[in-house]
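Mods, move this if it's the wrong board.
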Amino acid sequence: HAAGPEPEELDVFMGRDFLITYQDHELAVIGAVVADLQAGITLRTGVDGILHAIADRLTDDLLPLVNRLANHLDDIEDDILAQPSQLLQHDILTVRSLAGRIRRLLTAQLQVTQRLSRGEFEYVAEPNRIYFRDVYDHLVRIDFSLEGLREDTDVALSTYLSSVNNELSTVMKVLAIVATLALPSTVITGIFGTNFDNVPGLHSSEGFLLMVASMVALGLGMGIYFRRKGWF
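Not the wrong board. Structure tokens:
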């Protein structure tokens, strides 16, 4: 949803012959590992092998989320090129915020997994440390992907602002041309609207037509000149 996935805290207590997990809400990852155990699916040996299965599944769940964010950003960039809007700017900032949140949460997992792979915990057997190292490497790659995603949001935001500025420049250009074309008519009507009786053509029966013809001729002439200059 718009606010992104809500983080869940998972606490793990491990001893020589036990592994206890605690979370406020049921996690699909824990249920999947328990189902594997009940089905007799072979996991790594020991309680540290079960911990590895949990860590591995948690890591595997992160990558599709990052990929969805990247694909969403690609769609946003396509929409920017087609038709930039204020909503797209909000979407870009949302993706950037989500990438930052996930990366901050990932930092704790990186630190713990690295310590598990280094053998800092006595209940992690030597043969299983390499598997935690593999999980750590996956987390590092995901972290790099998130960093790249945040950089891509900066590019997308820059593209959006450039597109908006181009549209604004086009609008201002049109308004300036319209104002310039209307200027001769304003001057002419201002002259004929003065309180002097000796204005040429003021009391002539054809004075009005002369005034309108002058405005049209000047407008057309200026329009042709602007067109030849490539100003519109």
